[in-house]
Amino acid sequence: MPVIVIASPKGGAGKSTTAILLATELALAGARTVLFDCDPNRSVSIWASRKKLPKNIEFINDVGESEIIRAIKHHDTDGKIVIVDLEGVASRLVSRAISQADLVITPMRGTTLDATIGARALALVAEEEEALGREIRHAVVFTMTRAIRSNQHKGIEVSLKGQGVDVIDPPLMERAAYSALFEFGGNLRDLPPQGNMEGAISNAIEFARAVYQRLAEPVEAAA
Ligand SMILES: Nc1ncnc2c1ncn2[C@@H]1O[C@H](COP(=O)(O)OP(=O)(O)OP(=O)(O)O)[C@@H](O)[C@H]1O
Ligand SMILES: [Mg+2]
Q1: 16 CB under 6 A from ligand 1?
Q2: Is the CB of residue 33 below 6 angstroms from any atom belonging to ligand 1?
Q3: Distance spanning both ends of the chain, measured CA to CA
Q4: Residue 220 binned pLDDT confidence (cut-offs 50, 70, 90)
Q5: In angstroms, what CA-CA distances link 121 with 7, 10, 53, 171, 176?
Q6: Is the CB of residue 47 below 6 angstroms from any atom belonging to ligand 1?
Q7: Which end of the chain is more exposed for a tag (fewer CB within 10 A), N or C?
Q8: Which CATH architecture has domain 3-222?
Q9: pLDDT at 96 over 50
Q10: For a substitution probing ligand 1, which of 6, 15, 17 has the most ligand atoms within 8 Å of its CB?
Q11: Cα(144) to centroid(ligand 2), Å
């Protein structure tokens, strides 16, 4: 079953938030998910420690570069979706996780700095593709997006699409509920009200759906 790796060498790009939203929304939709926290800063572990894990989510941490491939293969069994959250660096651990991916997602804020550093994730994927002799599906998701997008953001999106990069629609909007997940744990439905909850929930559902669709499509359909 699919392995989704969330990777960007840019710190604070929204990787852990993306991993948690994806795991919780896919789990609510009925999928069994396994969420790996492979970041020594343990953001996802903080989320996991706040509350009893939501149904359908298995959580794993403390996986280093020597165990990562074995651990992913062990959990990559029928009926489960594996989601791997990584540190904001380029490292052997990151490359090894990418080598096991069916889909690599790079979260990116719509700023030139994020796009420039985030683009290095594309280079890491290309390196693994070359080493393995297979294609690895890759997509970018814009994070912390505001309702009115800046010209900088629009320009980056046009440029990525022009280079044939798969950009996930919808982006993850900037929502108080998303950052509150680290404070309260659980899924978005468990949170005390934070801003526009309905908007936050529907955005997360649509994002998870767009990711799920990519898992179902063959690689050639990506371009
Ligand atoms: N869509 C969003 N709306 C509101 N806040 C967000 C959103 N995405 C991320 N944040 C907040 O931005 C900060 C960084 O996000 P996150 O920890 O997910 O990034 P990261 O890429 O995992 O960072 P690191 O590289 O340190 O692991 C966190 O405080 C998080 O709560
Ligand atoms: Mg993180």
Answers
A1: yes
A2: no
A3: 22
A4: low
A5: 7, 9, 30, 18, 27
A6: no
A7: C
A8: 3-Layer(aba) Sandwich (3.40)
A9: yes
A10: 17
A11: 14
Instruction: Give the orientation angle of helix 112-132 with respect to helix 151-162, to 10 degrees.
Output: 20
Outline where DSSP puts E strands in 14-146: 32-38, 57-61, 80-86, 103-109, 137-143
Residue 172: CB within 6 Å of ligand 1? yes
pTM: predicted TM-score of the whole model, two decimal places: 0.96
Q: Ligand 1: does its nearest atom lie under 6 Å from the Cβ of 14? A: yes
Residues 6+ away with beta carbon under 8 Å from 39: 15, 16, 85, 86, 87, 88
Tell me, in angstroms, the distance from the centre of ligand 2 to residue 23's CA.
Answer: 14
Sole residue written with tokens 């509150």: 180
- For 101-116, what is the mean pLDDT? 96
Smallest CA separation from ligand 1 atom 31, residue: 179
When pLDDT is averaged across residues 104-122 and rounded to a whole number, the result is 95
